[in-house]
Amino acid sequence: MKLCMIGTGYVGLVSGVCFADLGNDVICVDKDTKKIDQLIKGKVPIYEPGLTELVTKNYKNKRLNFSTNLKKSVKDSDIIFICVGTPTKKHGSSADLSQIYNVAKEISSSINKFKIIITKSTVPLTTGDEIEKILSKKNNKKKFSVVSNPEFLREGEAIRDFIYPDRVVVGSNNKKSNRILKSLYSPLISKGASYLQTSRRAAELIKYASNAFLATKITFINEIANLCEKTGVNVEDISIGMGLDKRIGSRFLRAGPAYGGSCFPKDTKAITSTADKFKSNLSVVKSVIKSNKNRSNLLLNRVYEILGKRIKNKKITFLGVTFKANTDDMRDSSSLLMIPALSKKGAIIKYFDPTGSKKEFSNIKNVYYSKTIKYSLEDSDLVIIHTEWNDFKSINFKNLLKNKKVIIYDMRNIYTPTKIKNQGFKYYSIGR
Ligand SMILES: NC(=O)c1ccc[n+]([C@@H]2O[C@H](COP(=O)([O-])OP(=O)(O)OC[C@H]3O[C@@H](n4cnc5c(N)ncnc54)[C@H](O)[C@@H]3O)[C@@H](O)[C@H]2O)c1
Q1: CA-to-CA dists, residue 334 to 77, 217, 324, 338, 365, angstroms
Q2: Of 123, 129, 216, 337, which residue has the fewest beta carbons closer than 10 angstroms?
Q3: SS3 call for 6
Q4: CB 351 within 8 A of CB 361
Q5: How far apart are CA 391 and CA 393, in angstroms?
Q6: Distances (CA, A) of 206 to 76, 124, 168, 169, 171
Q7: Atom 27, ligand 1: residue with shortest CA distance
Q8: In terms of Cα–Cα distance, which of 283, 253, 289, 252 is closest to 268?
Q9: What's the pLDDT tens digit per position in 130-185?
Q10: Which segments within 275-414 are labelled E, that is strand?
């Protein structure tokens, strides 16, 4: 089948290359010419384990191609996946759908034969209806079908998640589209993925409801961790004890910093905003958003306390600055709040991240990128383990930190407290 992915970011590129690997002809389109030029030269612009190898393989065997020409790519394809961004609006909390509607307008003038137009981007309830209206202005309704097929992949595990998803959700009541999409996804269904065919609006809402639920789980355990800190209980025991209940499950029950990333913060806001629009109050999700916002400040205050409120000229090391491990994505990472706040109070910050230096910190006073963990730790007063990369899981602090007065604040509970304390360091973690 001939597929066109519009938007070659985390979702468009990963799903495009995986579809190509499954034997389809895929063209990945982006308006960012630099990104497309890089991809044509074999350079993958994002960090995602295994992606470069898969892009190279499928580009070489000509099943995968890249273009900036949206109209021609749409004309040449049967199935069009819209994979552009849906960030939060600058003012307010609803989703900014301008990228989606701009693409819909462009597609509209390129419908030369029957096309299935799919939103793989996370879009609020009724967006599919709006896209249909846009396309109907220039085209007979028989010439296209608008489907919602939300993507559930996680950055850092994206290829595995795409090939072995728990479920594929397809929202459409068009028989022809449903038959074609079931056939497109049949290699994943035969590997065990559940296939749910539902209404378009339900598919749109399933994605938001899932993300809001996962954000709630994280926030819940983070609040339980606060209680543990006050009562001398180990939150890890609570996570295990709760997770063993099959109705609850152990995933997304690990206490840590505020949730971040390109999805949970914007999607929790968007679903509450959509619900408000329909005069329905999602009070649970609203309080999750509030609690998560407070969490970054709460951990920041903890850092101030750990340093005895004397921040000026304190040397602080951040290990990891992305919102989670195995990605270079900085969107809504809690480091974006903590590092500038500490710099403002006069701290000198060095950070190491396996995915390199970050432009987000380039203009912030006294914030420096270190090329190795070792350099980042030199002369440090406080080491903050911010992201759970494997690279940070067996650091020999005893050898690397000569000064035993260094404090370690492990925001991911990677280390066993007694083990680090026995090495002579002051050690803090989350909820224990
Ligand atoms: N990142 C994730 O882990 C993830 C997971 C599931 C769903 N999603 C959803 O998928 C969507 C895309 O997310 P992402 O992280 O891949 O975004 P992204 O920012 O990485 O990529 C979006 C791409 O779309 C391109 N684009 C924008 N307008 C365009 C146009 N008119 N023509 C061509 N290209 C255009 C941009 O240049 C960019 O490269 C969002 O709705 C997001 O919520 C993301």
Answers
A1: 40, 18, 10, 6, 18
A2: 129
A3: strand
A4: yes
A5: 6
A6: 31, 10, 11, 8, 10
A7: 84
A8: 289
A9: 999 999 999 999 999 999 999 999 999 999 999 999 999 999 989 999 999 999 99
A10: 315-319, 348-352, 367-369, 382-385, 407-410
Q: Which two tokens stand for residue 88?
A: 């939060």
42 alpha carbon – ligand 1 mean position (Å):
20
What distance in Å separates the CA atoms of residue 203 and residue 165, rounded to the nearest whole number?
16
The tokens 């009070």 sit on which residue? 283
**Ligand 1, from 11, 119, 327, 329: best to mutate by most atoms within 8 Å of Cβ?**
11
Any idea which residues carry the catalytic annotation? 263
What is the C-alpha to C-alpha distance for residues 429 and 385, in angstroms, rounded to an integer?
9
Pairwise CA distance, residues 170 & 237, whole Å: 39
C-alpha to C-alpha distance for 32 and 85, rounded to whole angstroms: 13
Please tell me the distance between residue 204's alpha carbon and the centre of ligand 1 in angstroms. 16
d(CA 309, CA 295): 19
The pairs formed by 48-52 with CB atoms below 8 angstroms and a separation of 24 or more are: 48/10, 48/14, 48/155, 48/156, 48/158, 48/159, 48/326, 48/327, 49/156, 49/157, 49/159, 49/326, 50/159, 51/13, 51/14, 51/17, 51/158, 51/159
Which residues, 6 or more positions from 16, have their beta carbon under 8 angstroms from its beta carbon? 3, 5, 8, 26, 28, 64, 81, 83
Kindly state the tokens that stand for 145.
């079908």
Please name the residue ranges forming H helices in 165-282.
175-184, 186-189, 200-231, 235-243, 264-277
Q: What phi, psi does 337 have (nearest 5°)?
A: -95, -45
pLDDT tens sequence across 74-107: 999 999 999 999 999 999 999 999 999 999 999 9
Going along the chain from its start, the domains and CATH numbers come out as: 2-197 (3.40.50.720), 199-432 (3.40.50.720)
Counting atoms of ligand 1 from 1, which one is nearest the CA of 12? 16
Considering the entire predicted model, what is its pTM?
Answer: 0.96
pLDDT digits over 163-175, tens only?
999 999 999 989 9
Query: Cα of 253 to ligand 1 centre, how many Å?
Result: 27
d(CA 375, CA 371): 7
Angstrom distance (rounded) from CA 308 to CA 382: 12
Distance between CA atoms of residues 106 and 91, nearest Å: 26
Give CA separation, 115 vs 2, 77, 129, 319, in Å: 10, 8, 16, 47
